Q: What sequence folds into this?
């Protein structure tokens, strides 16, 4: 699905729209303009809300490995 500006509407954009209780039919760029929040701030704060399954699994494996080795995490 594409935004009116021509960019794709990602899962992260839809999640941000639900967090900010706005229309889910906008890309992150248009959403940042609508909310008057800098694009980079939205990306930094909320990126990775929806990660692909292998990425999420790898992250959990790394957290478990660090915990078992006593490295924190």
A:
């Amino acid at each position: 699905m594409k935004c009116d500006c021509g960019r794709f509407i990602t899962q992260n954009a839809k999640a941000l729209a639900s967090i900010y209780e706005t229309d889910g039919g906008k890309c992150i760029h248009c959403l940042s303009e609508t909310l008057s929040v800098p694009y980079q701030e939205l990306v930094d704060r909320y990126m990775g809300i929806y990660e692909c399954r292998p990425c999420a699994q790898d992250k959990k494996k790394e957290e478990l490995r660090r915990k078992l080795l006593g490295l924190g995490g």
Observations:
- The two ends are 37 Å apart (CA to CA).
- The chain has a mean pLDDT of 82.
- The chain is about 55% helix and 0% strand.
- The CA atoms of residues 3 and 25 lie 6 Å apart.
